[in-house]
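We emphasize that the prediction below concerns an isolated chain of 484 residues; any contacts that depend on oligomerization or on bound cofactors are therefore not represented. The input was used exactly as deposited, without trimming of termini.
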Amino acid sequence: MYKLKGQIISIIGFFICYATSIQAENLLDIYERAVQFDPILRQAEANYLAILEVKPQARSAMLPFISFTAGEATSYAKDPNSPTNFATGQPDPYIGSTKFDRDSSLWNVQLEQTLFDWSRILKLRQADKQVAQAEIEFQIAQQNLLVRVATTYFLVLAAEDTLNSQTAAREAIGRQLEQTERRFEVGLIAITDVQEAQAGYDQAIAAEISAKRNLATTQEFLREIIGESVVDLDGPVEEIPLLQPDPANAEQWVQLALDRNLSLISSRISSEIAMDEISVQRSVRLPTFSFSASFGQSSSDTIRTNNLILRPEGNFTCMPELGESGHNYCPPQRTPSSTDADNYFLSFNFNIPLFTGGYNSSRIQQSVYEHRAKMEGLETVTRATERETRDAYLSVISEISRVQALQQAVTSSETALRATEAGLEVGTRTTVEVLIAQNNLSAAQTAYARSRYDYILNVLRLRMAAGNLSFRDFEEVNSWLTER
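Result of the prediction step, given as a token string:
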């Protein structure tokens, strides 16, 4: 039987296998790593920096646009038809075809400046609100990181406490099993007591294995945030301060949340941006004024080549050569020419849309519906903020009482276990009652540890709902921890 116990105990170590790990970390250490390596926060930061570019983009629409163009080109063209003789108005009988070889180059500088466009002015104002909302959203991501780190940190501690409790229970039940077996060997108890003790011991081993697996899972959650595995975390001190919320009134906390909750502020800004978009779309119907100017130079060198034809009855002084058609050809006549030009252009432009096929009307109506959706979203966030704030406040109040009650429950369970074990010694209690008392103590210890973590998390959630969660709160919570 003892050989079987050793085999079962050896299974427990199967579930513990960690990657490169770090030792003895407190809450601030974990948070510092999360700030550097948490992909969710880094994604939020990248989104924030991207939205910051909205402002210079909107401002650029109000500034001059200057462009420079330059190029060179070579072209060749051949006209197989005789050109028109300007004297007779008929095709010239002495020119068979004409070729053009042209080399050209140009450069040009162009300036465009918007003088008045109300939609661009509104877009610039709208960009300020978009940047403000981006800053709020990034602050929300930072606060969420604080809560996520704390939640996962205390999940790991709770899993460790559960494992410690299950390990202590397994060891205590193991000792009880050994005592029961010795008493059976001397004939003081029946075999059923041994079997009950063995069943309780097997269940304790199964519970310990499950606790080890749960601990490994929660540590993986923490590794997901910081990119490293952790084997040792600081736990809470023996007596953490159970502070009542200040102010001690739920409605005051709700009012504070309605004024300062970051998600609510972001939703309000979002509805304002949607309202501005209606004005932007309506302003498209207004006239716009702009100024354009350009300056440049162009030049070209052209060689015109005429292939001259001598009819049979004609007479040329050139040395003719007989062609395939029986005509006499003279050598081609090449005429070079070149041009140079300076180009100037100034323009004041006035534009007003008269008809766009209903597109502008549709965009205006679409923006109205989008604003309506944002307003409904604002109402949703407002109600959720009120609910979450009241719930967090009541959770802090109730958790204080729960911690105190569970602390007393642990003391009572310890006393009950000692009394039950003493009763077993004198024969007034059974092995099953001892096992029940041991399980009650383990459950009370686990619940007590978890209630302290829940109290801390509810404090953080209440402050986050009220919009005043900061790094100082994290430092305060970290001061309640000590090396385990």
